Inverse folding.
């Protein structure tokens, strides 16, 4: 059997394909193409006009110099912030999604896996970006044998058919889909006899929490027993969160302040989001750089110089 052509295997997201076009077109907007959105009528503002509004304000008051501040980001989407000439003051304080393909490639090399299938949910932004990163990296390394996109909003996701198609090309399947769909796929795999050790499944759960969707096997229904058995064939890739005593103290303090100042109570077993710690580290690091700048008699409006003080250093928050 000959593998399908690339066009048959993957329906590339129009959003990602047009990112570069939008960035380079000063007057472009997501919905500007009337041939693609012929029935769209705007009843509100358009964000693409914000630059015109700001320019008008600056011209009105004769402002010629705008403060370029330091940016601190706690995540990374490959390509979006990669251009250092465009984002010279960006400092990453967290994981980089573009490294996921390196992690997966290391796993495949460790076990000698040469043929990999990828199923991704194009209706979920996180799953789409992760999936596209993996697709690019695995294809470059010659490991990707099959890729399919699906719309996770459809009630009938046809998980069993996707798995049957994938099984013709690979015995290692990456599920870059929302949490609820992971369970559906694993239950479908179990019913197809694909959870007996001949196939391996992988998914990505960067951080746990209701915001990111439920990724666990337990759902409180009659399928829990099958789901639990099926998940024995699932290898999950996630962030290794700190386990030190100081981090636990920090988490307790965050929960206390959340209740005191924002009337938010963490549920039993709910952990402090990983990004909270990343942003906290970012503020700490920025404060250190600002203090050093003032001590040296520097200009706190010089974002590039402050950023350089933040890079390549170790610190304890």
């Amino acid at each position: 059997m000959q593998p399908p052509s690339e066009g048959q295997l993957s329906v590339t997201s129009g959003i990602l394909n047009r990112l570069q076009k939008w960035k380079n077109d000063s007057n472009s907007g997501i919905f500007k193409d009337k041939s693609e959105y012929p029935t769209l009528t705007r009843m509100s503002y358009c964000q693409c006009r914000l630059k015109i509004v700001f320019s008008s304000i600056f011209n009105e008051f004769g402002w010629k110099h705008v403060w370029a501040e330091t940016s601190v980001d706690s995540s990374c989407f490959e390509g979006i912030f990669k251009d250092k000439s465009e984002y010279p003051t960006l400092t990453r304080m967290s994981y980089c999604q573009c490294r996921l393909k390196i992690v997966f490639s290391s796993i495949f090399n460790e076990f000698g896996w040469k043929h990999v299938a990828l199923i991704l949910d194009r209706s979920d932004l996180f799953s789409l970006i992760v999936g596209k990163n993996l697709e690019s990296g695995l294809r470059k390394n010659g490991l990707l044998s099959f890729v399919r996109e699906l719309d996770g909003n459809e009630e009938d996701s046809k998980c069993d058919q996707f798995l049957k198609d994938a099984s013709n090309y690979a015995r290692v399947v990456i599920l870059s889909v929302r949490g609820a769909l992971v369970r559906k796929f694993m239950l479908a795999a179990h019913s197809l006899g694909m959870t007996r050790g001949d196939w391996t499944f992988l998914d990505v759960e960067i951080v746990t929490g209701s915001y990111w969707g439920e990724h666990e096997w337990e759902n409180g229904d009659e399928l829990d027993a099958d789901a639990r058995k099926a998940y024995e064939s699932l290898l999950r890739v996630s962030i290794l969160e700190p386990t030190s005593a100081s981090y636990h103290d920090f988490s307790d303090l965050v929960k206390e302040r959340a209740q005191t100042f924002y009337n938010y109570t963490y549920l039993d077993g709910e952990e402090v989001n990983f990004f909270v710690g990343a942003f906290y580290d970012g503020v700490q690091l920025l404060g250190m750089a600002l203090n050093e700048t003032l001590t040296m008699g520097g200009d706190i409006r010089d974002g590039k110089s402050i950023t350089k003080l933040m890079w390549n250093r170790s610190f304890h928050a």
Summary: The chain has a mean pLDDT of 79.
